[in-house]
Design brief:
The protein is α+β, with helices and mostly antiparallel strands. The chain has a single domain, classed as 2-Layer Sandwich (STM4215-like). Helix content is 25%, strand content 42%. It is built from 2 helices and 6 strands. The longest helix has 17 residues. The radius of gyration is 15 Å and the shape is globular.
Length: 125
Amino acid sequence: MVNESYAKAAEVIEGFWGRFGVPVFREGSVPRGFERPCIVFSHAMGSCFAEMNESAALVNFAESEANRLIGRIAAAIPEEGKILPIGLNDGVAWLNRATTFVKRRRGTDNLAVVYEVGYTVGVYC
């Protein structure tokens, strides 16, 4: 049940990132040669009632587009966190902003700006 809940939580978190209207990939699954703006997120397997530090990278965005998207993400993960139901009997995932919520990770070229959005996720099943 625990592993099943975590697998469902990963799908729910992917759905959360997918609501922003750009392609979303789990870390390590970006197709080779993909150069369009996208969100690449991490999700580690853990145990119920434990919080994991995670991140999502905004890749290949122009700086102005990245800033607009960061504003939308900040609104979607308020200061008090965001609860995402996993399923009828599988509990919830609780997303919170990390201490450093947004940082420029690398890149200085305006067409390859990479920002990292830090968050924690707790799965309560």
